[in-house]
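re: ur question from yesterday

yeah so i grabbed the chain u mentioned. its 291 aa long if i counted rite. heres the sequnce exactly as i have it in my notes:
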Amino acid sequence: MKPAPFEYHAPTTTADAAGLLADLGDGAKVLAGGQSLIPMLALRLAVFDHLVDVGRIAELKGIERRDDALWVGAGTTEAAVGASAEVASAVPLLAKATPFIGHFQIRNRGTLGGSIAHADPAAEYPAVALALDASMEVVSAKGRRTIAARDFFDGLWSTTMETDELLAGVSFPIWGGRSGFAVEEFARRHGDFALAGVAAAIELDGDDRVRRCALGLIGMGSTPERASTTEVQLAGQPVTEIDGEEVGRSAVAGLADVPSDLHGSADYRRRLGAAMVARAWRAASAEAGHG
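ran it thru and got these structure tokens back, copy pasting raw so excuse formatting
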């Protein structure tokens, strides 16, 4: 099939893009890498009168340290994120998640901001952003504001951004100390969306107790999920006394909106999710233990 007719716009500044979104209203859609939007348009699962292509806006691209956080421009490609030594050093969880995204051809075009703004609960970057308490910088003709990741995702493929707002960048807090990170997911084929997965982070204190931890769940609800109750329970415990299998069971126990479809039942996904959490917890704990 072919997309329905639309008018194409290619602004070269953030201000111009924000102005277009304000003027065009609900009939406009931002086009970044297009790796999710273009197939939806081609299948006519989505129809828009206007596409605002932000791929030429230089100020939406880049990676830089800002105090105790790493800022990644929304227009930065997933391939650039994966190749960045700065990302690998400052936000290892983001670097570890990148190879799970589609195939390298997709990562060459897809952008970090496009993935997060698309808000697919089976995608990796939204789970990483949620786990690390990232902050979303959004801009409109009215100005800029920041939205915490916990307040950003509000439904299937839906965020709390207004229709005239553009995601400009994401700030990821930098974890220090004895930290470890792991991403585990299960997909039927490499490059497919995960049936279940997790982005895990852990920081230990000098006595090998859990100072803090984060578990961002992939494909386990209509939005990215976080196992907050389990994280609270684990804080302060000696890491050597924590059973990874129990962490996995606990992380998925309270989930009420696990998908059930032709790819797998909700119960199957819960069991997969628990196994992925257990595996990631062990890997992240080992990495933290090695300093």
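noticed a couple things. The mean pLDDT is 96. also The radius of gyration is 19 Å.
anyway ttyl
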